[in-house]
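[Help] Beginner question about ligand-bound structures

Sorry if this is basic. My supervisor gave me a protein sequence and a SMILES string for zinc ion and asked me to "get the holo structure". I don't really know what that means in practice or what format the answer should be in. Inputs are pasted below exactly as I got them.
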Amino acid sequence: MSDTDDVADAGFDEWLDAAETGDAYYLECANGHGSLPPRRVCLDCGATDLEEVGLPERGEIETFTITHVPTPAFEEDAPYATAIANVGPVRITGQVVGIDPEGVETGLEVELEITVSETTGERVIGFRPA
Ligand SMILES: [Zn+2]
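Answer (accepted):
No worries, everyone starts somewhere. Holo just means with the ligand present. The predicted complex, written as C-alpha cells, is below.
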C-alpha cells in the first residue's frame, strides 16, 4: 500500500485546493452514493465508475464531540469541537470553527471552510456556522 498512499495524499491535497477556492466536489457513483477523494471505489457498493459532482455549499452537523484535553499535537486548538456533517450525500469529518464549542449542536447548519490547524500548520476541513 505504500506507493498508493502517496497518490491518496496528493488526491486529498488537490481536493483541499479546490475546496479553498469554493470548488469543493465529491465523487458520486451511478447509484448516487457520495464520497470524498481520495477514492477510486464506492464504499457503499464497490462501483469504480465515479464522477466528480459539485458539493452543496451547506451541510448539517449530524454528531460531534468536544475535546477539552487534546493530544499534545492539538494543544493550541483546545477546546474544540470535531463534527461529522452531512453535506449532500457525503458525510464529512471536520473541526468546527467560528463558534464557541459549547454552542455546537446537532442539526446546526454549517458551511465548509478549509482552515489551518493552529498547532500543526496543516490544512484541515472546518465547519463554520452558516
Ligand atoms: Zn455506490
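A couple of things worth pointing out: The longest strand covers residues 58-67. The longest helix spans residues 2-20. Feel free to follow up in the thread.
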